[in-house]
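TOPIC: backbone geometry
CONTENTS: sequence, structure tokens:
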Amino acid sequence: MDDTIVGAEKGLAKVMERVRLVARSDVPVIIFGETGTGKEVIARAIHNSSTRAAGPFIRVNCGAIPPELIDSQLFGHERGAFTGAVESRKGWFERADGGTLLLDEVAELPLPAQVRFLRILQDGWLERVGGKHPIKVDVRIVLATHRDLATMVAKGKFREDLWYRIATFPVFLPPLRDRIEDLKELAEHFARRSAIRFGLPTLLPTDDDLKILAAYSWPGNIRELGAVIDRAALLGNGKRLEIKKSLGWNESYEQHQNSISTNGSQQNFSGKISSLDDAVKKHISQALALTTGRIEGNRGAAELLKINPHTLRARMRKLGIKWTDYRK
């Protein structure tokens, strides 16, 4: 979304107020929100509004780094620290010195790495893997997760002392279904982006298109909306936005219409709802089916889902999804 935060004065007004409150300080910030709600966008807004705006902004997805490499990637290593370490290497904390480091999916950080991370938060020093001397780092820490860290602490899956250290200033991002007032502006934003991306005429959603979009539940949130608009633009080939066809690739629009009453409430609710992991698994599976198992490259599943291929592979491993199951 570039530097523009759509909905800053509407659905995200409370979020942006918290961004303004915390931006000028250096306290750690943790951003909670479902997948696709725009956590990185808010992290960048904090960085850009801070005194560190001229410094680097580095995003690291903790869930995309293999556990055996996490220490080396985050904290760096010295030459000879392990097999293959032919030279010394700075980690992401050192590279972000003077700026902001976003640790996305921080809940996936292994417990041993959490100990190293806690030391940096406490006194600003780190030791590279295989290092003998501490290194001072000056970095603003922003964290993001879609998980319930308090529950993970109770289960022993996240360190309690680290949790108290990072929970100083939480920011909660609402899901798209709770900020429908921003839907029109968001859809138009993505429609303009699609036109530029695909070299097509700029076509904005009609009132009927917006009604269809408003009836959908958006399990993938803003990221999914962007993908839906992209597909609608491609399917329409510069003549129209094929919103209904694009949404049909995700879930039957008619099913949503039949389950929603005239006042917008759901009927015949059973009291059960699928987990977020189930929704993500379904979304990834649909993308792989459309691309016949292709993950990377032009119109691969990663491009359709608007995520890094390495991140997609990590989530597939976690959810037990095999790309070979979708080959034809």
Observations:
- Confidence is low (pLDDT under 50) at residues 256-273.
- The chain has two domains: 13-174, 177-265+274-326.
